[in-house]
């Protein structure tokens, strides 16, 4: 474990790590690599912390998802479909909100804290960490999973760049076990 300010890093993970291919698909999400990338890095980090699902009973773990642009591929698909006079499929209304995949992670792991999404104006990790400190200080959560993700502008576009990576960090108060 390491410390970051008043917080303790309880577990950390990245996607990709050596040997990783594409993250596994997430049921109910289509077309985009954003939800699978968030789910895979969160799963890896939480598994390193807790071993297996669910998180311990009574654990109030918040999720703070930080992304300046969110799910670019879904937004581009909806924009192109509407511009062409079409109607986007109903799944796009659900998955176009980045906190839907954060809620998916919370449900799978039984996390009982708030779910927040931030679009940082400055340093994503610093802004996400500041939000985590507030949540813990105010008593809204005991721990927080900070997920940092950005995608290349052409990510998810056929023939485009591969999915950009993501980092997940489970943070607790400085005196957390």
UniProtKB/TrEMBL annotation:
SUPFAM superfamilies: Thiolase-like
Pfam families: Ketoacyl-synt_2
Domain spans labelled Beta-ketoacyl synthase-like N-terminal: 58-154
Gene3D superfamilies, per the entry: 3.40.47.10
MF annotations from Gene Ontology: acyltransferase activity
Highest taxon, organism lineage: Bacteria
Listed InterPro entries: Ketoacyl_synth_N, Thiolase-like
Stated name of the protein: Beta-ketoacyl synthase-like N-terminal domain-containing protein
Organism annotation: Micromonospora echinofusca
